[in-house]
């Protein structure tokens, strides 16, 4: 075979070449959750509070401070964030935006945040539109996909799900971005659903699990489930009051019913 035609040439790893510095995108209590060229997961049962933590992550991106010990970092070379929502109807998404702005103490919707509603679009169209956005918005550093299940037609189709995960791996590297993807878990097993969940768990940089606290009303917890680049950290608990104010509390022991 002609060496010029050898497909392995471009894949040979050169240990003498130093990699570029790792660019941190999402941290929790200074633990690295997501960096460029990677994707991470927010997982949990439907309607458990994943959108609330998504709002907190977004709020932290447009403030100098952390929100609930969470920080989404924006960098000068790629300051934009894109948010692709595939699940919520108009009214629900509007409420989510209000919550995000309340948590960030924002008076106006940020210019460097693009929000798209894709509830009416099919899987192949969503995939194409996300890549078109990245091609035409090269100053984007992080995208949020809520939710990942809507990018496939059958989450139990092994080939289709592997193609999607390969797509995430490719676009994170090619466009030098990080992706935060929301993914449901099964009601009986607690595992991310189907083949899409198995592949996503294998290749993600982190899987953060969100659940309702069984001993404290209106409290939801975020805890590490799978971490590649960080040490274990104490779960984060937030509580919503009757008048829709959200605040952080000490972690509630779900089984013991006491605080740490």
What does this structure look like?
With about 260 residues, this protein is α/β, with parallel strands linked by helices. It has a single domain (about 20-250), classed as 3-Layer(aba) Sandwich (Rossmann fold). It has five helices and twelve strands. The chain has helices at about 50-60, 90-105, 125-135, 160-175, 195-205; strands spanning about 25-30, 30-35, 40-45, 70, 80-85, 115, 140-145, 180-185, 205-210, 220-225, 235-240, 245-250. Strands 6-5-7-8-3-9-10-11-12 form a nine-stranded mixed sheet, sandwiched between helices. A hairpin with a 5-residue loop joins strand 11 and strand 12 (about 245-250). The longest helix has 17 residues, at about 160-175. It is globular and about 65 Å long. The N and C termini lie far apart (about 65 Å).
Question: What is the compact description of this entry?
Answer:
This protein has 260 residues and is an alpha/beta fold.
Descriptive labels:
260 residues, alpha/beta, Rossmann fold, 26% helix
Termini gap:
64 Å
Tally of structural domains? 1
Gyration radius (Cα, Å) is: 19 Å
Report strand %.
Answer: 25-35%
Poorly predicted runs of 5 or more residues: 254-260
H/E element sequence: EEEHEEHEHEHEHEEEE
At the first level of CATH, the class is Alpha Beta
Strand order of the largest sheet: 6-5-7-8-3-9-10-11-12
Averaged pLDDT: 92
- Classify the fold: give the CATH topology: Rossmann fold
């Amino acid at each position: 075979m002609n060496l010029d035609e050898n497909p392995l040439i471009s894949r040979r790893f050169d240990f003498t070449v130093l990699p570029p510095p790792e660019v941190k995108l999402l941290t929790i209590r200074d633990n690295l959750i997501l960096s460029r060229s990677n994707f991470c997961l927010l997982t949990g049962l439907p309607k458990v509070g994943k959108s609330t933590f998504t709002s907190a992550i977004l709020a932290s991106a447009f403030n100098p401070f952390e929100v609930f010990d969470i920080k989404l970092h924006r960098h000068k070379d790629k300051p934009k964030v894109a948010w692709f929502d595939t699940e919520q109807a108009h009214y629900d998404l509007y409420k989510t935006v209000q919550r995000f702005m309340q948590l960030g103490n924002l008076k106006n919707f940020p210019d460097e945040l693009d929000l798209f509603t894709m509830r009416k679009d099919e899987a192949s169209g969503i995939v194409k539109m996300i890549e078109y956005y990245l091609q035409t918005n090269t100053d984007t550093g992080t995208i949020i996909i809520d939710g990942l299940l809507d990018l496939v037609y059958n989450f139990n189709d092994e080939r289709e799900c592997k193609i999607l995960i390969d797509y995430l791996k490719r676009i994170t590297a090619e466009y030098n971005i990080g992706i935060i993807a929301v993914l449901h878990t099964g009601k009986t097993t607690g595992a991310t659903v189907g083949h899409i969940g198995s592949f996503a768990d294998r290749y993600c940089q982190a899987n953060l699990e969100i659940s309702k606290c069984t001993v404290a009303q209106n409290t939801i917890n975020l805890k590490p489930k799978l971490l590649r680049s960080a040490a274990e950290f104490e779960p984060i608990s937030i509580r919503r009051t009757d008048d829709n104010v959200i605040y952080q509390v000490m972690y509630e022991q779900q089984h013991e019913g006491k605080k740490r």
